[in-house]
Structures are given as structure tokens and as C-alpha cells.
Amino acid sequence: GAVVSQHPSWVICKSGTSVKIECRSLDFQATTMFWYRQFPKQSLMLMATSNEGSKATYEQGVEKDKFLINHASLTLSTLTVTSAHPEDSSFYICSARARQGGNTEAFFGQGTRLTVV
Amino acid sequence: RKEVEQDPGPFNVPEGATVAFNCTYSNSASQSFFWYRQDCRKEPKLLMSVYSSGNEDGRFTAQLNRASQYISLLIRDSKLSDSATYLCVVPRGGSQGNLIFGKGTKLSVKP
Q: What mean pLDDT comes out for the span B45-62?
């Protein structure tokens, strides 16, 4: 099946610094990728939709200036958490949808566990 | 009604038991639905897709009731390896839309 690779898998950073997370579709082209955040014991919450060649669409309550999304190519989207604070510590997951036969399945990256200290 | 709402769980069942989860959705125009499985500290993985009235794959059966706007997942002959969180997923705004996840139902299968 399709593969989505996310990097890094975990990162620890100091409060106030920025962290970039990469999401790559390895064997298919993804015009749209999605970024989710998951806090402990909670479900995945959609943060934004990343569109290749255009601005991302953010969900209500998600600060676009804090969570910068760039989708420079059909296989790469990046999420940058700027001026990270401890409350940004979470599990960030990207996904991309690929057509498999008549269905459109979402494939997920391995996730990035961010800890801000 | 929330976009996607699931049984709160957790479900603690013995091996071999049959267990069912329900999920309700608010968008009556939704055409496709998914059940994902998420293991602790891992990314979600697709378990089943539901496009018509239902789908069956081995011990797993998903059923769709459009009139009542709910989807169910039935697991027969539970295995220890079925222990995970099961996420009900509904695309927002059509089949190509963003995937909206339910909060998940945690299943724990005991020996």
C-alpha cells in the first residue's frame, strides 16, 4: 500500500524554539495532506489541510502564524511549530489520501512526538 | 449532534467474546465511512471502509444505517491482539474531504 513517511519521530526542544516536521508521500502524489494533533487519551484533532501550491486551510482555533504549513511539492508538506511552548507538547500526525482502486484511503505518517521543555 | 460521536468505552472483554461499537455522525450527505485502529503511541491504520450498507472482513463486520446516521463495528471471537483504540472516521464535505475522527473507543481483550 501507499507509504507516508514522517520525520522526525520524536523531538525534544526548549521553550521558545521552533520545530519543523516533514511529511512525505513516498510512492504517490498527494495534492492534499492533512495535519492532526493528538493529546494523551484524546482523539486526533484536525489542525489544517495542506494544499500543494497554495495556502493551508486551518481549522477553527488553530493559529496559522504559530503552526506554519508549507506544501512545496506533490510529495512533501512541512509543519513548523514556531515559538513552541510546553502546551504544544503533543503527538503530531500527517496523512495523505491516495486512490486505491475505487476507494480513497488515508495513509498516515508514523507521527512525531513533540516534547517542549 | 457532534460531527462524529462514538461509544465512550473502555470495553473490557474476555478472549473469544463478541463486542460491538457504535458511531453516530451528523452529516447526512456523508457517503463513505471508515474504521481505523490505533495502537498506543502509534499512527492510525485503516481497518475497514464502509460505502454501502456494510462490509465484512473475517471476524470484523461494519454496518451502516443511513436513516439513523450510525455505523457499527462488530468484532467476533476477540483476540488479545485486538486490544486497541478503534476510531470511527467520516469525511467532511464528500469523499475527498478532510477526515474527521471520533474520540475512539478503547478495547481491552483479557485472557
A: 89
**Distance from first CA to last CA of chain B, Å, rounded?**
37
For A32, A90, B46, the CA distances from A72, given in Å and listed in that order, are 11, 25, 27
Identity of the residue in B43, B95, B100 whose CB atom sits nearest the CB atom of A110: B43
Of the residues B42, B43, B88, B99, the best mutation for testing chain A's interface (the one with the most A CB atoms within 10 Å of its CB) is B43
Residue pLDDT tens, chain A, 117 long: 668 999 999 999 999 999 999 999 998 888 789 999 999 878 888 899 888 888 899 999 999 999 999 988 889 999 999 999 999 999 999 998 765 554 567 789 999 999 999
pLDDT value at residue B107 = 95
**Residues in chain A closer than 8 A to B41 (CB atoms):** 91, 111, 113
Taking CB atoms and an 8 Å cutoff, what residues of chain A touch B102? 43
Q: If you ran DSSP here, which 8-state letter would residue A66 be given?
A: T
Residues of chain A contacting residue B49, judged by C-beta atoms under 8 Å apart: 103, 105
* CA A67/CA A49 separation, integer angstroms: 12
